[in-house]
Amino acid sequence: MNADSTNRIWIYDTTLRDGSQREGMSLSIEDKLRIAHRLDRLGVPFIEGGWPGANPKDVQFFWRLQEEPLQNAEAVAFCSTRRPGKTAAEDPMLQPILSAGTRWVTIFGKSWDLHVIEGLNTTLEENLEMIRDTIEFLRSQGRQVIYDAEHWFDGYKHNPTYALKTLETAIAAGAEWIVFCDTNGGTLPHEISQITRTVIQTLRQNTDIPINFGIHTHNDAETAVANALTAVLEGVRMVQGTINGYGERCGNANLCSLIPNLQLKLGYDCIDPSHLVKLTETSRYISEVANLAPDDHAAFVGLSAFAHKGGIHVSAVQRNPLTYEHLQPELIGNKRRIVVSDQAGMSNILAKAATFGIDLNKQDPKCRQILEKLKELENQGYQFEAAEASFELLMHEAVGDRQTFFEIKGFHVHCEQLEGMTNVLATVKVGVNGKNILEAAEGNGPVSALDAALRKALVNFYPALADFQLTDYKVRILDGGAGTSAKTRVLVESSNGHQRWTTVGVSTNIIEASYQAVVEGLEYGLILQTQGKEVVALS
Amino acid sequence: MNADSTNRIWIYDTTLRDGSQREGMSLSIEDKLRIAHRLDRLGVPFIEGGWPGANPKDVQFFWRLQEEPLQNAEAVAFCSTRRPGKTAAEDPMLQPILSAGTRWVTIFGKSWDLHVIEGLNTTLEENLEMIRDTIEFLRSQGRQVIYDAEHWFDGYKHNPTYALKTLETAIAAGAEWIVFCDTNGGTLPHEISQITRTVIQTLRQNTDIPINFGIHTHNDAETAVANALTAVLEGVRMVQGTINGYGERCGNANLCSLIPNLQLKLGYDCIDPSHLVKLTETSRYISEVANLAPDDHAAFVGLSAFAHKGGIHVSAVQRNPLTYEHLQPELIGNKRRIVVSDQAGMSNILAKAATFGIDLNKQDPKCRQILEKLKELENQGYQFEAAEASFELLMHEAVGDRQTFFEIKGFHVHCEQLEGMTNVLATVKVGVNGKNILEAAEGNGPVSALDAALRKALVNFYPALADFQLTDYKVRILDGGAGTSAKTRVLVESSNGHQRWTTVGVSTNIIEASYQAVVEGLEYGLILQTQGKEVVALS
């Protein structure tokens, strides 16, 4: 394959590896699996999952991925070149890479002589040998290799001859892609442009092997996106980055900006055009899973990216969006927001109703009622993007067909710590079939005690509850600046063993917010149960 | 003056005008004055203060500025060209501009035929007349004029001949600077480069008047900084932007990135080199005044911009910062941070001890004990990256000099919801000076009730507590897959009015985790109080 004869750009996502180096970001294996499958559905062709062996989590992630494989994307395992002084076949570091069971492996190696000598404490010659041996070994094991040239631009500036030798070695050893990495993130676009142009020309002159090039940039000079675009204009065909630009220090190149820039502005093919509309929801879903507040001012996918304030702007943009918008927000699944009187959303409500199997049309006054209710709740801090089950309940409420399984009468939580011992006891009162049921349970925290008491109270009436589980629980403090008086938003994911759904609760009292979400989770599960309905799984 | 024969770049700050268009940003007159004087001290030569006449606040701001004038910077009033159909002298809109009393005025006019016809509802010829008349009138009143060519790049792409005519008109009328504005923010660097080059050449060929050019970009394609740099490389000598990239939609070009890129990487003169070290504190001060959370991952000035995690990274960067840093953080008043995490090695611990003023050396067995303790706690779910106060307490504990202010004996929380009414009551028992104190308080959630009870119990012994506040509260569910039995990590930020510090608590019981963090927050505040110690402010 000679990638640069095509108009295609291979997007390579490293949210799960380089992205998760972001300070304060910590993903569980379940989180990683959810993100990987979401990226797969977006249509990203390469998904770097981690460095198996560097930590137990990444080993297990790749095993789990073998059980729940990606549909279209290639999962990629990441590793360094072998250590100095032993062969790749002998180096135990490379075994977990093979066990990861991916067709593709990314190997990073040193381009910068300073790092070879000061970082690896080895010779320049041995570094070349490490690159060659590692790639050849992986090729002999049937793997396809992407070679990440770490510190490429800094290395090339300091010692171009040696830096070029590392790439020639990787190419001769059988790497299919050579990726120029701006590891320290400080290179500016005009330097990226000059170096990329010269290097591609030189390498093409020196070898007959068809080579494909990639770019991996960081945002330390706030030019990561421009740096990647510049490299593409010089002939690079793989772009590495992360969703929302997550990554250590100032982050990696942001795929949420790169994909629309490349595809909608520069005319390259990155992902299936019909998937482009999923970009905004993918960005928000991943920030939710990572439990990081989304950046409202993010380009393309941010809540404010197409927000217009009152006056001339608004009427101009309504007559002709071109006047104040660089792009149609709908193309990437975002929407124009008129900050004064928001007319948008109606079509969203209708689309959602259709997904939920609720019969609703634009003329129906209920449609506007739902929109009003939605705005009121969002204003209070609710958010339904990741809590569709709660949104569906809200819609059923509005159209008047919400089923009632039980009535919440009240709860009581007692939580005590004395001399290092903690006791938590919850009592709930629920009404079922006209009867009031009181039940109590202990727990290792107030929410698990409440959840246990509630199930005890209801399981005799609804035996299906015995199979329900809480599979995820997330808490976000809204307006954290208000300290412990701030509002809390809780997301609870429930499962009945084969379906999963998420509900939301909001309150200044974290126990109350959790209880709301737990209660709606049970209610929604019972709807699924009685209707035999196929829920759209969250991931 | 012919600006482009020099190496100087004129920085033009528009935080107070375009920046404050950011959704959710609202500055009082006092805020605006504080920011203006701070920018003046940083050494920014032009400070755009607002559009006097568009709102009363901006009129008053310029009057106040006449009483408290800037030391070095030029304050600039902003306004559009006069309205169609009357002369500039007759247009009441221009009177407040003159009353603002600035030497410099920025006038924006239409470059794009579409906007002239659809937006202004006038003729292309009248638009030229509006540009000419407005600039000539202001010149006749002794003002120096900067001409902002609104929608320059889009206008030029649609109708280059007309767009050029607008600039030729502005130049002939006496504008000293012509500023290319990418108003919709969607132009990419290679287009900025081509258009800027062609236009500057054409205008220089067509006139003998020396002209100076500027650039004004927005971040809708996430390339605002690169776009401005590109224009500079094509000969532009004024760069307009905002501190922290504030601005409507996705923001304006970020001066906190542009200034170090231009001055430290490209060798231009922007501000006095001795002032460059004020950049980080200026960024954080302005986010404080604007009451917006600082972006920890911002390039150059972010808290994480020079943060290092891994052990190998840390020892390499300590030997030679060049290995993993694109720039010396001290140059812009930021600093390297060694992030404490279980990837940390001994070198991280020693580096941290030194920052805390704790005497520790590598041979000391306590050093290994701290590392072991750290790993054990991180394994339990603690995380000290963002909770340095808790880590400092842990270190004092290990070296045996942790002060005791009070002893936690126990607490009790009662939380009840009945018929929609919620009651929360907390009781605490603490030991101070050999006495047991019992206190109770209500709250709108369990944590605020506990916090209130604890302060009540302690404030008689430690009156300083009365000034402490909880300023931020964050909750993260670890291993959310365990549902409501999952562990909870709580981060609490406390303040005494002039310093801020963060503490951490972990438990399966969210109330217990919060209580731990609140208790350590009070303890650390008391240490600061008694030692008169200067804490490293978090932001």
UniProtKB/TrEMBL annotation, chains A, B:
Can you state which reaction this protein catalyses? pyruvate + acetyl-CoA + H2O = (3R)-citramalate + CoA + H(+)
Per its UniProt record, what Gene3D superfamilies does this chain match?
1.10.238.260, 3.30.160.270, Aldolase class I
Looking up InterPro entries in the UniProt record yields: 2-isopropylmalate_synth_dimer (IPR013709), AIPM/Hcit_synth_CS (IPR002034), Aldolase_TIM (IPR013785), Citramal_synthase (IPR005675), LeuA/HCS_post-cat (IPR054691), LeuA_allosteric_dom_sf (IPR036230), PYR_CT (IPR000891)
- Group of enzyme by EC: transferase
Keyword annotations of the record: Acyltransferase, Amino-acid biosynthesis, Branched-chain amino acid biosynthesis, Cytoplasm, Isoleucine biosynthesis, Transferase
Q: In which pathway does it act?
A: Amino-acid biosynthesis; L-isoleucine biosynthesis; 2-oxobutanoate from pyruvate: step 1/3
Specify the superkingdom.
Bacteria
Molecular function (GO) terms for this protein are: acyltransferase activity
E.C. code: 2.3.3.21
Residues in domain Pyruvate carboxyltransferase?
Answer: 9-277
Pfam families the UniProt entry points to: HCS_D2, HMGL-like, LeuA_dimer
| Family, as annotated | Belongs to the alpha-IPM synthase/homocitrate synthase family.
Q: What is this protein called?
A: Citramalate synthase
User: What is the scientific name of the source organism?
Assistant: Laspinema palackyanum D2a
Gene that specifies this protein = cimA
